[in-house]
User: Fold SnoaL-like domain-containing protein from Ohtaekwangia kribbensis.
Amino acid sequence: MVSAVVLIAGCSKDDDSNTSSTGNLKQEESNKQLVITFRQTLFGDKDISAIDEYIVTDYMQHNLQVADGREALKAMTKQWIAGGPQTTVDINTWRLPKCSK
Assistant:
């Protein structure tokens, strides 16, 4: 199970754009697909069960207005998506932070 929703790309101090391994690329693609599936299921399909499938019970919330834990996340997410239509979540509209060296 994923310990947190990965919605932000990480940056490494040791980032070397000229080197990569096939294993890392496969893992990155697997991680990307996991996040795409989670986002589509939860925010596109409006299916709260995605939280049970992808988020650990003791999830640590980073929004100070929402309590820690999966149940608190589910309660807040129900409010966020209430009444919204099902839609396709487009990964191309995601805005990720730039890495600074």
